[in-house]
Amino acid sequence: MKVDRAAVYDLLAEYGGLIDAAKYDEWLGLFAEECRYQIVPRENYDRGLPAALIFCDSRAVLEDRIRALREANKYNIHTDRHIIGLPRTLGAGNDELVVEAPFAVYQTDQEGETRLFAAGLYRDHLGPGEYGLKIRDKLILLDTFAVPSLLATPL
Amino acid sequence: MAMVTAAIWPALDYSRVPYRLYHDTEIYAFEQERIFRGPAWSFLGLEAEIPEPGDFRASYVGETPVVFNRDEAGGVKAFVNRCAHRGALVRRELSGNAAQHICIYHQWCYGLDGGLTAIPFRRGIRGKGGLDPSFEMSAHGLRPLRVGNINGALFGTLSEDAEPLEDYLGAPILIRRLFDRPVRVLGYNRQRIRGNWKLYAENTRDNYHASLLHEFLVTFGLDRSTQVGGVRMDPRHRHNITWAEADSDTDEFAHQAYSSARVRNDHLSLKEPALVTFRPEREDKLNIAITSVFPSAVFVQISNSLAVRQIRPRGVDEVEVFQTVIGYKDDPPEMTLHRLRQANLVGPAGLVSMEDGEAIEIAHRASKPDLDRATVIELGGGGVISDRDYRVTDVPLRGFWSYYAELLGIEPEGAVR
Questions:
Q1: The complex's ipTM?
Q2: Considering the entire predicted model, what is its pTM?
Q3: Is A53's Cβ below 8 Å from some Cβ in B?
């Protein structure tokens, strides 16, 4: 697959922007029909341990997550702000791109106090979709594995 | 020093807890001394984390950093992770394997039994400097902990006065139950909550909140208070077991019971039902078994997700919940996958646990300005502290406070035990 940098940038920008706007259904639309989404504490990744904070090994589990967020879970009232760094290409196969991008997420509470919530690295497997790239596999390596307060909205 | 006294309790049955106990820094320091460095046993970690001689892991007893390791003879030793020389952390890594522990500051060396084995330039250079020949190496080892072991779950205490671990636990059957087969560590997670550690210790003993705060439990049919279940304590009421049996109520009964609470119970189906599908692993039907051990350990089974939580106080205003996610060594790969899926339920992002972080923070925040007011603990009634075969109860919180008061030496005259 040809490395289309503009398409990768578009996808990452949409990805962060849609979470920050709390448009989770549209955010789900960035994922392929068959996909995985995982947030793994670096503490585990470095030791070869499989447990994740969020482990969605299918689109169904990811959709359940978002539905639970909307219909059942209660969490700190806040807004997210994703700052996503420059992606680097790790590989390009026949119909797949592998890219890595550092990220930071700041959370701001209702009283206007902002704190750094998470820093880490996205490792994405991307494939072609109808209107741009789709995420097939997203591994989020969480540097900030001492999670402040709780983790509800997606990273 | 203005210290807390028995007069602090507004009620003899511990049904009122003054907010001061969650916010006063002197009381916090006193707790570290009387509880964590006192005759309580703290969970350290798992034998499964240090299978080979020289394997070590860092942990905490209260705020005190400790390290536990396997020695050359295969035994488990634990000591305070602090150099006898300048008080520096000796082991900086969280885990690893080593023949000895060497402080980087002046390279004092300790063996796997914690004994001081070598000091650089002990005799000085060219006969000048160094330590006096009378310096006793044996008096300057790492401070040892007594270690207790329940089927591979390791506990430690700094106190010579602590009763034997078996006696301390009372009837630890649900710990033995969780560790009835060799375990495998699947990973760790951590959550830093801006609240006092005791709010978390109470939370794990509070059966009342479970299906009200954690709506996922009821909304998706995993657990509801209408199931057969209850709370059971050790004879001294310091520990608690919260339990529930799978498939022990009917939908109709549950709908009726929850009609007054703002909780939905419409059994919305999940796209991936494996998230909540319980696969019985034992003859009992328990799908919820949560054992809280005073002061800081929680052994958790929620469906097929298994974990041990260590409550790590970080000052009066913050607590880290450190969770070790486990499975069994003989789990087939498919069962490990099931557990990894169900690990979605617990931890800082847990579908049935994330709310605790928020609940503790709002309780800590709103109680801080008004220290002489108190919380109300009366679900399941006041008075005598005893086991209940129902779940709408928070009696075990009063059990926690009764032992807390005993250790701090602030039991009021005529207190209910």
A1: 0.96
A2: 0.95
A3: yes
